[in-house]
Amino acid sequence: MKHQLDFEKPIIELQNKLAELRKHPDTHALGIHFDEEVAQIEKKIEDTRRHIYTRLSAWDRVKIARHPKRPFTLDYLAATFTNFSELHGDRLFAEDRAVVGGFAQLGGHKVMVIGTQKGRDTKENILRNFGSAHPEGYRKALRLMKLANKFNLPIITLIDTAGAYPGIGAEERHIAEAIAVNLREMMLLKVPVIAAVIGEGGSGGALGIGVADRVLILENAYYSVISPEGCAAILWKDRAAAAKAAQALKITAKDLLKLGLTDETIPEPLGGAHTDLKTTAASLKDVLLRHLAELLGMSVDERLKKRYEKFRAFGHFEEKKPELVEAAKA
């Protein structure tokens, strides 16, 4: 199996064993049949798959989020939306193909969809800059958002990036300023805004299109201020501690929902979104339509107030009194 993950090894071994057994011809003359053995292995594969995928660590989910076969923004634009018409350019510097966007239809709603896009192979990854946008990508996204705001179209963003591009050219063209402007302007948009993390949600590169009335996340996606490897390099001085960092960062869908940083987790098929795009796309569509209906039922003032309160509430924490800390240690 191509692109297998390390924790999938027991499943792969059973699948190989099943394939060998199916190749073996039944010897009817001697009364030898393998139907029972096949059924037993099939059941064991299903049980093993369920056991593994219901006990994934944070680092395992990061691996699934980065799976090369995982559906990207353009896959969902074809499977979840209809009548997508792509728009190009930021009207200031260039076209950034790490960000795609344009008019589309979601159910009976006309919307503006914007998302970060990775590549499937080396050639496409170079074209898409591995899904890491330059400043012009965020300025293109903002141009499309303002267009949607002008024509009263809801905005949906699909987030899948390891982070904004940190190169010299991006710094020269003010990547931090481009993202900061997006944060400010998205907070003021009068139309409904829904963001969905479909894969990697890395740092400001994700947040640059992530200020929304509702923030959704797929079950095996992650959303974080820094990558696990980056965190490990800073705190443990060793990128090999990425698994430990992933656990400490609380970046999984379950943790984010518990912390109130996301509004809903969208379930994926057992094994991840890459195993069944059709089912995942249908689930995404159902959740988007439900949240969109709720947002359209609010007044503009109510939406803006709730959006502001949502992000102001992030980062609250409590400090234990010193004597309680000492008592806990004892």
What does this 3D model show about the protein?
This protein is an alpha/beta fold and 330 residues long. The protein has two domains: 6-55; 67-312, 2-enoyl-CoA Hydratase, Chain A, domain 1. 48% of the residues lie in helices and 15% in strands. Strands 1, 2, 3, 4, 5, 6, 7 and 8 form an eight-stranded mixed beta sheet that branches. The longest helix has 20 residues, at 277-296. The protein is globular. It starts with 8 loop residues before the first helix and ends with a helix.
Based on the model shown, name its key terms.
single chain, 330 residues, alpha/beta, 2-enoyl-CoA Hydratase, Chain A, domain 1, 2 domains, eight-stranded mixed sheet, 15 helices
Q: Output the structural class.
A: alpha/beta
- Number of domain modules: 2
What fraction of residues sit in β-strands?
5-15%
Query: Would you tell me which CATH topology of the largest domain applies?
Result: 2-enoyl-CoA Hydratase, Chain A, domain 1
SSE arrangement:
Blueprint: H1 9-23, H2 35-53, H3 58-65, H4 73-79, E1 82-86, E2 99-106, E3 109-116, H5 122-128, H6 135-150, E4 155-161, H7 168-172, H8 175-188, E5 193-202, H9 203-207, E6 214-218, E7 222-224, H10 228-235, H11 242-249, H12 253-259, E8 264-266, H13 277-296, H14 300-312, H15 322-329
Parallel strand pairs: 3-4, 4-5, 5-6, 5-7, 6-8
Antiparallel strand pairs: 1-2, 2-3
Helix pairs in contact: 1-2, 3-11, 6-8, 10-11
